[in-house]
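REVIEWER CHECKLIST
Item 1: Sequence provided? yes
Item 2: Single chain? yes
Item 3: Sequence as submitted:
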Amino acid sequence: MAAIPLGVLDLVPVVSGSTAAEALAHSIDLARRTEEFGYARYWFAEHHLNPGVAGTSPAVVLALTASATRTIRLGSGAVQLGHRTALSTVEEFGLIDALHPGRLDLGLGRSAGPQQRRGPVEDGSGSGGGPAAPPEPAVPAAPVVDGRTPNGLRIPDRFSFAHLLGHPRVALQQKLLNLPGAHPQDYSEQVDDVLALLRGEYRTPEGVEAHAVPGEGADVQVWILGSSGGVSAEAAGRNGLRFAANYHVSPATVLEAAEGYRAAFKPSAELDRPYLTVSADVVVAEDEETARELATGYAPWVRSIRTAEGAIPYPTPSEARALAWSAEDGALVADRLETRFVGSPGTVADHLEKLRDATGADELLITTITHRHADRVRSYRLLAEEWQRRG
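Item 4: Structure as written out by the authors:
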């Protein structure tokens, strides 16, 4: 099977001893470099109140990045509709498209507001690192035996986010992101409004028209991001949109997300068949030992998110090893560690091929965090070279 396109998902990580300004500069540089390496698209996630993540506004960061790049597609992974309106979203992307036409991906995600808590929500899913949510009903997926698909892809047990519901920091984030007394619009309805505004077809029930300028007619690809086979997958399929499933955030539910999307898909003017990208956490180095060393900071970083502390500045390997660690900590992050692809270019490419084949992905979305920017750039370069060689 031929190699499929690779994209980049960037959380704009702030590393220990660094600043948000340096993180932004590194992200823009990485976008330039991955454009040179042949990556198809570069997405920015949305996160809030995380000391170790500077990507609070995908639209702002991708606008800056668009001016520094020439050909790579740029987008959001994802804009969180729970604390903004359809109109503000369309207008923001319309502004950028006016100056950089034909290069934008508008990725839409659900935040876990009062009316949004219906699926797994966590860091990197486009959730803004928000509160967890009860899992949606499972959608039948490909057979998994002893935690593996037939081709060997690891599918861990479903992780419970129940311990985060009602957490004070989660409540604070919701308070600061939402206007007092405001009620989030139903997610599916909000997606419909975004599409109607882009197409110039928005009408109230009374027949009043609304036209977003700029925004109406913008040449953007609309994507839906999701971690399960529920609301997000259904919205993507029903509207004939592209869908991004989050293996790196919710590996237990990636198969049901992909199958839920395909089951709901209806052909549209945009697509005549489902189109799926799947995310993966990756660290590549010249050899296995070096890659494992570079990946050492990942476990405490994930722990900080899953305890609602907020993503800590990404530690050095030595800083990570010096942190206290318990059996409970290990259980808290086990599914994420087991499903991160770390190693030499050949090893990681083998894992990515399993992910591609198990999910039927049309693209893969790679997210990589290391403490040193140079190591992060090298990881993307080595992977691109190996992937192109296989193609």
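Item 5: Key structural point noted by reviewer: The beta strands are 6-10, 41-44, 73-76, 79-80, 104-109, 220-226, 242-246, 276-284, 341-343, 363-367.
Item 6: Recommendation: ____
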